[in-house]
Amino acid sequence: MQLDPKTVELSKIKQIELLASARPDTVSLAQGIPSFDTPDEVKRFAIRAIEDGRVAKYSLAPGLIELREAIEESLIKDSMHYDSEEEIIVTAGSIEAISATMLALLQSGDEVILFSPSYVSYRQSILLAKAKPVYVPLDEEHEWSINFEALLAALTSNTRVILICNPNNPTGSIFKKDDLLKIAQIAESRNLFVVLDEVYKDFIYDNRTFYSLATESKYRDRVIRVYSFSKAYAMTGWRIGYLHTSKELARRILAVHDGLVTCAPVVSQYAALGALTLPAASWQVYLGEYKARRDLLASYLDKIVGLTYTMPTASYFFFPKINRNVVNNYADSETFALQMLSIAGVATVPGSAFGPSGEDHLRLSFGRDRETISKGMERMMTFFKSHAD
Amino acid sequence: MPTSLVKNIVRVYLGVLARTRVLRSQSYVVVVSGINGKTTTKRAIYDALKDRNCNVFMSEMNYNTDIGLPLTILGLTPPPRKAGEWAIALCKAAMSSLFGKKLPEFLVVEFGIADKGDMNKLLTVVKPNITVVTNTHYSDFNPNTTLDELAHELSVLAAATSTRGLVVLGGDNAYVDALRSATKARTVTFGFEKNNDIVISKTDETVDGTTILINNKEYTVASSGNNHFYAFTAAQLVSDFIFKKIKE
Fold it and tell me: Which residues contact B240 (CB under 8 A, 6 or more apart)?
């Protein structure tokens, strides 16, 4: 049997990382991995669970009840009220949560609205469910906000889900409360589901308040919210996250989650329980460092003539635009990113990976330490000097 | 010195100081234990007492072990991260215990049990005037302890409850009779099953909450899910008992 190469393929980010790993002396600003190690308290929680012999067996499919209760408590602090027993599912990272959700909600031929640009791997999750991603361009001129005219034009009788990454990866922008409420109203009137991926909700660098549709009890029957411990707790390798939604939807998603992974890794569930006991103050230290890294990377971008950018207010990504008129022999963002990798030894993600509106952009991560950022950006500056007028 | 010995010394030291602070404050203690639903129930009791304008202390998050419980009572959460910080924290613990501000009139704390003997360690820190046992059933958290052993731990708690107090028991499980017979205090069971003293039934669910009947009296609970209905009912029983006591 032959697999159709047009359906599900490895994401561009992972492809770039594979290429980068094969090239000696490469500096990677590609993958969104925090440079920090998992906090010691979190590791200790996991170690204690291993030593106590608690991790060898499966947990219940939705996760350890103790963890779900701790998640419920943490959600209450964010004004979200979900029942730990029936409305919260612990997952193997956020992408498993999203894939399980897509498989549970969609049938062949259904359509999912994806804002463009948005996170690369959503496409794979949608294709896995044999559904079709439909890209709706964001308005770059207005801080990558939602273009409702384009959104309404993209809706068809096959549309089932609107998937929102907020704060948005790769643009580092936050969607406004009014816009999100407008989306909820559209979803209500058209009987659509709204999937919220809020893994970067802790990475906000100014004073604006983050708003989640999951705080609205009115929409709980159609909103599925996804969160991951990967980013805020530097736990990407633990593969642990969760989703919460209404009882009925949770039951449907749980059946798929069970079929995919049985349960999230139990040792990681204990680590997540440890993460939830960390004081809020400890996060401020990390946030301060990320802000300093953002400012450092911006100081380099300011010196590169061929790139223009919007300062990210959230996440840990820049998404600068390549000036076609300035860069010599420019074809597209993918060719350009590959050139920069092979010549300058800097891995970045081509903007086209994030949807059609991402073309002519690059995604740069400032999750890496300052030394790596400086080294990568120095190389990038040199590369631009020799490839731009 | 072996780590386990150091840990034991710290545990006993903190336990004595926390107990001293509670005794000095003469607080009325409500202990919430069981296999799950403890934190939700603790918060519901706290909210119910606050609604009646009581001055209440609630133990933080899931600080419910023989180390975590004293830390929260002594106001030392989050726990120190480094050895040097621990030394300072242990000094602060003594100050808080002996000279610190008295705790409020009501204390609502959580007891977590994972192994045999855990309950006796926790009872050296505080003794309950009122005990709430949410339930006794299987949990992934206690894979090395049998249900019988966990039920025994909970019966130790029931037995330690003040004879003038109350033991509130989640009744929809097989261990309720064993727990009831372990205590000399007044007991009350609650749950959806008809044989409970206080019977809960659901009437209507909307996006704004669920209307439940507790012994035919109607209440609206904001959150959905049975554990919230259990927690709400336990909280009503605790606050009603306390207020009857005050009136007496």
Answer: none
